[in-house]
């Protein structure tokens, strides 16, 4: 079993670090929050009082941080300063493709191997160890990261070179944001045309309008499997995080010169929804504003 530094023990990282400890690894955990550190300790990790100290003698470094700026800072101040050059560096945060590539290049310049490995699946999947990881990096780096990722997820897929994991993540979530809005619109129009939500679901879920947003994550309460819609849009995937991913997708589209008009519109609609100042809700709650 390996010694691992785990930096960022929030909603997602807390459960992920716990699963590495459960798999028998020696997890050296650090977060700026004392509460997060205490929870990691209770879950079998060893709390450490600085990111630099957590790097001592590790085989792997896992980061699960809010955004690219946090990742760059932790890499510059702690990982590159104190991790052994042989450690495999695994960033699971959702960040922009450009930063992911920059961090990997900096690692390479120091003779270190790095992968970007963002996740699909929310807090419950992080806790249950059923995340999907999409991994960007060399074949060799992927092979080294894979056993650690497998202890935290049920699918680990090599997407390509550095940045490819983040590219897959934001393309997937751009598609999800746009299909969720389209699904909400279809239900609202169906209602206004006199169709019962259940009837429309029964038809569309076996017709060409079918999507994950409809059959696995239906935005209408009481229809389809249990979803955040059945709990007043609490839990699930926060609309603010969907907006974060859509903004990353729009930045990437601009940088790559790709036309993404539906993604742009989805970003506008989620910007308006999140900006309404209501308490945090699941991203399927956008149906409320369409109504
Ligand atoms: P979070 O805000 O709950 O956790 C982030 C943690 O990082 C916090 O505990 C914070 O204290 C810590 N942190 C910030 N800067 C730090 C530093 N310099 N050193 C040490 N710790 C630091 O966020 P989260 O929901 O766990 O999300 C983490 C990442 O996962 C984000 O990039 C997010 O987009 C992505 N993600 C989240 C979900 C979800 O459902 N929450 C799903 C998929 C992907």
From TrEMBL:
Gene Ontology MF terms: 3-hydroxyisobutyrate dehydrogenase activity; NAD binding; NADP binding
Enzyme class, first EC level, given as a word: oxidoreductase
SUPFAM superfamilies the UniProt entry points to: 6-phosphogluconate dehydrogenase C-terminal domain-like, NAD(P)-binding Rossmann-fold domains
Entry-linked InterPro entries: 3-OH-isobutyrate_DH-rel_CS, 6-PGluconate_DH-like_C_sf, 6PGD_dom2, 6PGDH_NADP-bd, HIBADH, HIBADH-like_NADP-bd, HIBADH-related, NAD(P)-bd_dom_sf
Pathway this chain belongs to: Amino-acid degradation; L-valine degradation
Active-site positions on this chain: 169
Domain 6-phosphogluconate dehydrogenase NADP-binding: 3-160
EC number: 1.1.1.31
Highest taxon above the source species: Bacteria
Keyword annotations from UniProtKB, A to Z: Branched-chain amino acid catabolism, NAD, Oxidoreductase
Reactions catalysed, as given in the entry: 3-hydroxy-2-methylpropanoate + NAD(+) = 2-methyl-3-oxopropanoate + NADH + H(+)
One of the GO BP terms on file: L-valine catabolic process
Stretches assigned to the 3-hydroxyisobutyrate dehydrogenase-like NAD-binding domain: 163-289
PROSITE patterns: 3_HYDROXYISOBUT_DH
Family, per entry: Belongs to the HIBADH-related family.
Name assigned to this protein: 3-hydroxyisobutyrate dehydrogenase
Organism: Sphingomonas parapaucimobilis NBRC 15100
């Amino acid at each position: 079993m390996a010694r691992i530094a785990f930096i960022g023990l929030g909603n997602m990282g807390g459960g992920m670090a716990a699963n590495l400890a459960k798999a028998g690894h020696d997890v050296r955990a650090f977060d700026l929050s004392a509460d997060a550190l205490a929870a990691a300790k209770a879950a079998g990790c060893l709390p450490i009082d600085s990111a630099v100290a957590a790097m001592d003698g590790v085989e792997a470094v896992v980061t699960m941080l809010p955004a690219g700026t946090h990742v760059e800072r932790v890499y510059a101040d702690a990982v590159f300063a104190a991790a052994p050059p042989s450690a495999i560096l695994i960033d699971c945060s959702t960040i922009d493709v450009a930063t992911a590539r920059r961090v990997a290049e900096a690692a390479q310049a120091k003779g270190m191997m790095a992968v970007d490995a963002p996740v699909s699946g929310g807090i419950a999947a992080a806790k249950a160890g059923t995340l999907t990881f999409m991994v960007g990096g060399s074949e060799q780096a992927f092979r080294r990261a894979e056993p650690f990722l497998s202890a935290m997820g049920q699918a680990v897929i090599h997407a390509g070179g550095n940045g490819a994991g983040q590219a897959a993540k934001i393309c997937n979530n751009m598609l999800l944001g746009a299909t969720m809005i389209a699904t909400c619109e279809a239900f609202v129009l169906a209602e206004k045309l006199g169709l019962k939500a259940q009837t429309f679901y029964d038809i569309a879920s076996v017709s060409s309008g079918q999507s994950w947003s409809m059959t696995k994550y239906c935005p209408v309460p009481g229809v389809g499997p249990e979803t955040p819609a059945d709990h007043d849009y609490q839990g699930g995937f926060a609309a603010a995080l969907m907006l974060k991913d859509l903004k990353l997708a729009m930045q990437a589209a601009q940088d790559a010169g790709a036309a993404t008009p539906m993604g742009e519109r989805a970003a506008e609609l989620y910007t308006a929804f999140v900006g309404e100042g209501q308490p945090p809700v699941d991203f399927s709650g956008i149906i409320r504003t369409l109504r």
